[in-house]
Amino acid sequence: MNTPWPSLVTNMNSSTPLPADGSLDVVDRFWHIDARTYTTKPSITIEFGYDDAANEMVGTNTINEANLQAQRFNTGTSNWEATKLFGTVNTATNKVSGAAISPADFFEDWILVDNANPLPVTLTNFSAECITATILVTWTTETEINNDYFVVEKSYNGVDFSEITRVDGNGNSNVSISYQVNVETENSVVYYRLKQVDFDGQYEYSNLTPCNCNNLDLITIYPNPSSSGYIDYEVSSNQARIVTVSLINDIGQQVMSTKESIESGITKKRINTTSLSKGNYLLMISSGDTKRTQKQFIIN
Questions:
Q1: Mean pLDDT across the stretch 224-232?
Q2: What is the mean pLDDT of the segment spanning 262-266?
Q3: Domain segments of the chain: what residues?
Q4: pTM for the full predicted model
Q5: Which of 117, 125, 143, 253 could form a disulfide linkage to 25, CB 3.0–4.6 angstroms apart?
Q6: How many CA atoms lie within 13 A of 257 on its CB side?
Q7: Residue 191 in contact with residue 156, Cβ under 8 Å?
Q8: CB-based burial label for 208 (10 Å; 0-12, 13-18, 19+)
């Protein structure tokens, strides 16, 4: 079943129907390509070799070897993108060659997939932002298969969700489609997620996206992903205050908590991450007046 996954890979979703595990459509090998010394991502050309006689491609896998192409996992969208397939297979030499990768497509984790059943990106963007008197929730799909409708949900604790509104999907589509809804503004951090429902009732959820309209805003975290032993962050506040800065790992454990003084306007701070394991983390900044802001980052 093509396990274990690399640390940054979160799914092997297939296209017919969602959500389903597409592990049987890929060669049972991952390639993790991590060039650590560049300051700007390069353009590269990769050749992938595979074994068609071992359990990499046979066994329970359902692969047409003549259809093999390379596909990469986008850590920004947490998806295998069906529109991003690379290289040409030579079944005599067992190689996929000529995979010319631009800097924008240079991600770390790669597979070889049967291009008749690529692991698709259904949702390429999901965000919520404060727009004067409302919160604008937006999302974009690259492909839609049997898509009946979306449900926009919200939560105040990231666990218990309630439905806000429903939006009709477009059934089957191979073009990029953007959606947006305006929802009531909140005075605290609210977590939003999207539920995508197929015509047969199957469904899947997006990642959570927090929104904070309370004038305490974590603007950016960089470098992200980080392999340098630290992260810098910038926080914007409408007043000077003492805040609590916490790091939460991907299973909800608090791994760091400290008090920091921030100024009115934008304050830049640094956190030493050398003691942290590779993985996904949440940086949370909160103050005594119940204002809170947070963002996700990756250590690799």
A1: 91
A2: 81
A3: 23-114, 123-211, 216-299
A4: 0.44
A5: 117
A6: 6
A7: yes
A8: middle
pLDDT at 292 over 90: no
- CATH code linked to domain 23-114: 2.60.40
Q: Which two tokens stand for residue 64?
A: 């047409």
For domain 216-299, give the CATH number. Answer: 2.60.40.2550
CA triple 113-114-115, angle to 5 deg: 100
What does the pLDDT average to over 253-269? 89
* CA–CA separation, 135 and 183 (whole Å): 5
CATH classification code of 123-211: 2.60.40.10
Q: Do domains 123-211 and 216-299 have the same CATH topology?
A: yes
